[in-house]
Write a structure and sequence with these properties.
249 residues; four-stranded antiparallel beta sheet; Nucleoside Triphosphate Pyrophosphohydrolase; 11 strands; 5 helices; alpha+beta; 2 domains; five-stranded mixed beta sheet; disordered N terminus
């Protein structure tokens, strides 16, 4: 069975669930270890996510007692499905969704994209993902605009002061080769430019930062929960053609 990896525990700034992805559903690489195909596992995860969202939406409108019981049962079934797909106990998922109330909406992850010329991009090494490389970024913050989040993440993870320029892409995580997660997530990629500061090799969240040539990207160990090679390749089109329209799934 696949396992669940907790990637954001113990960070007081973000609580038990962390500032980005606290649970990745790590599917097996050997087909014999799972009774269904990997594609089917992803499909069942999508069904479980939808069932959980429907149950949460139904409970948000104070339904009659018998309807509430049915929504609670649907919610419980969705968590059992996630548990069966992951091999992790149901209480883990109960904890994740305990704070989810009201009408469910996707979570938003914001990534800052800084180019140097047309062939280099600024990447950071994520401490909580074994030093794998990513664009600076994290969860969107309540009370902050997407541009403000991007600028803040650049400052905190690289030491640079930045200015947000424009939205490059708004992508649905399920349509890209990211590892699966319990949440439904949109990813916003925002073009920024450095206006001051200096690169810091070590921060609370990163162990390194540097300008990476485009040609080097295929050899890098990327934090694929945060950004994929195919996404970086598409984003580089904006370095050469900055007036291209924003991309959206």
């Amino acid at each position: 069975m696949p396992s669940v990896k907790n990637t954001r525990t113990g960070n007081p700034r973000y609580g038990a669930l962390g500032n980005h992805s606290s649970l990745l559903l790590v599917l097996p690489t050997t087909p014999d270890s799972l009774p269904i195909s990997l594609a089917s596992a992803a499909d069942w995860l999508a069904i479980a996510q939808r069932l959980q969202a429907l149950a949460q939406a139904g409970l948000a409108y104070n339904p009659p007692v018998f309807d509430a019981e049915r929504y609670e049962e649907i919610h419980a079934l969705s968590l059992q499905m996630m548990s069966s797909l992951s091999g992790h106990p149901v209480p883990t998922f109960e904890k994740i969704f305990a704070a989810e109330n009201g009408y469910p909406t996707p979570k938003v992850d914001v990534r800052a994209v800084l180019f140097r010329g047309t062939e280099e991009v600024l990447l950071v090494q994520e401490k909580i993902d074994g030093g794998r490389w990513s664009l600076p970024g994290g969860w969107a913050d309540v009370g902050s605009t997407p541009f403000e989040v991007a600028v803040k993440e650049v400052r905190e993870e690289t030491g640079l002061e930045a200015e947000a320029v424009r939205l490059l892409a708004l992508w649905d995580k399920k349509r890209h080769p990211h590892p699966p997660q319990p949440w439904y997530i949109y990813k916003a990629f925002i073009l920024c430019r450095a206006v001051g500061g200096a690169l810091q090799l070590d921060t609370t969240e990163t162990t390194g930062v540097r300008w990476v040539p485009r040609a080097e990207l295929p050899q890098l160990a990327l934090s694929t929960d945060r950004v994929t090679l195919s996404q970086l390749e598409r984003l580089f089109d904006f370095a050469q053609q900055p007036d291209l329209p924003a991309l959206c799934d």
